[in-house]
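Weekly modeling sync, notes
Attendees: S.R. (lead), two postdocs, one rotation student

Agenda item 3: backlog of single-chain predictions. S.R. asked that every request posted to the team notebook include the full sequence so nobody has to chase files. The rotation student volunteered to paste the first one in as an example of the format we agreed on. Action items at the bottom.

Example entry:
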Amino acid sequence: MKIYTKTGDKGQTSLLSGERVLKNNPQIEAYGTIDELNSFLGLLISDIENEAIRVNLELIQHKLFNAGTSFAIKSEVKFDVPEITEEDISFLENDIDKMNKELPELTNFILPGGTRAVSLTHVCRSICRRAERNAISADLDSDHSSMVIKYLNRLSDYFFVLSRKISEESGADIINWKK
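Predicted structure, as returned to the notebook:
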């Protein structure tokens, strides 16, 4: 099987539901940015030594694939579409709360940096925010896409708190923003 089809050579691609759309369609932008986030998340995972964090991040990678699927569909499909659920959001919230309890109170804005892993966590956070904006622009007006938007919103918070946890565990200097 060849990996290239040449069907996208004129700037169009197919959604999973069969429709052909321009590659800059808001739906493509949404799931493309989610894919970009997932790629950077894979890079982040390669720098994480804490096994529990690695396991959680790999779980999040699977959820991001599920999230992207909702933007790759425009009409009915003949397969079950994986969904983001309230349980997925609760998972993030619970982990955020658990990490926050172990961290010193945040009194300043902080700059990305300190270690490569901390910096990559901030890259994931900022791409996640863009994915959220693109998901809103795709405006699919479905319960599933609204759950994805909620998930991405919570996930960016998760990455911020995770950056602080990784800083704390590694003993990295936290860089406070100086006005």
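Discussion: group reviewed the output briefly. The first strand starts at residue 12 and ends at 14.
Action items: rotation student to repeat for the remaining queue; S.R. to check formatting next week.
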